[in-house]
# Entry
Amino acid sequence: MSPQPVAPAPAATSARAPKQDRSRVTRQRLLEAAVDCLAEVGWTGSTVAVVAERAGVSRGAAQHHFPTREDLFTAAVEHVAVQRHAAVQSAAAALPSRGPNRTEAVVRMLVDLYTGPLFRAALQLWVAVSTDDQLRPRVLELESRVGRETHHTAVALLGADESHPGVRETVQATLDMARGLGLADILSDDGARRARIVRQWARILDAQLSSNSFE
Amino acid sequence: MSPQPVAPAPAATSARAPKQDRSRVTRQRLLEAAVDCLAEVGWTGSTVAVVAERAGVSRGAAQHHFPTREDLFTAAVEHVAVQRHAAVQSAAAALPSRGPNRTEAVVRMLVDLYTGPLFRAALQLWVAVSTDDQLRPRVLELESRVGRETHHTAVALLGADESHPGVRETVQATLDMARGLGLADILSDDGARRARIVRQWARILDAQLSSNSFE
# Structure
């Protein structure tokens, strides 16, 4: 099934909304409550019952949509990853078209993907499944897919030419740094330090990518 | 109390070993078992009882050394961080003294700090406490201290001159990238990709740090 635009909540929850729309809204509420729950209380405290209550949905309805806890949380992390990816692409249209300000804005945007509730939720999921041989392949598949999409977005936004030696690895390093910055932010607000690193990283990328692109 | 060199286990566990030495060996066994346990089964499954059994120590003795679960695991992550730090400093003596091979070896060594059981254990602890307001300050204090030491080591090994603009942030970015690479490795072996990124990042650092150092 291809991704559907999200129906506005007030119309979709009214008594006259078709059953299919109400079902979609219920599903979306569960997914959003699951992400918030994972980010706030962690994997151990995140159960289907807790998420259903937070979403204002009956436990039966929750289990209809997501038979297992793993179904719910994997789908939740994927759902928000897709939303964030779409948000990045639309925000990218507002960036300056050239120059060092553009590079810094792009790096900031990429780094922002790894801070906030989605990253916190995804991190809880990764760490929980890292010790679980059954669940790991599933989250790994999701993570690989999201990682590939993010890499493509980064290449496009930076105007990087991956046919030049080292450029692919430089873009990957940028995303690994972004992930590391996200991790540094989970215990305390690391925003001031992060802003300085983003600025310096943008300078490095400008030097690296332009020397490769125009040689 | 200043850090003590670790007494060899066979002598210290013999019946003739002084009580103080036996106590130190028991403590060390518990700390090492705690790190392995955290890395392998995660925070939820890591209790004092499980660690005591793994270490071959009675539960009473474990609780004598570490009254709470948090005492045990915070001490465990710190213990191994101190050991790793010492290992890095002694391994650093074997590095080539100059040239691009040195930079790549240094970057690899720094990145290695964020892979393996210690990083996995620390990650489990960070993520567990990120949703716990009481425990977070304690782990944050430990993490800040270990982070500062690692930064000083990186500056020294790279021969970076932080009085030049951007150099401090470049070293920080290197460690954030290393942390991100560690996180990328928790779901599957990311070694091949990581080696390519380390090589490229070493090239970038050589260009960045030499243009700053010799300008």
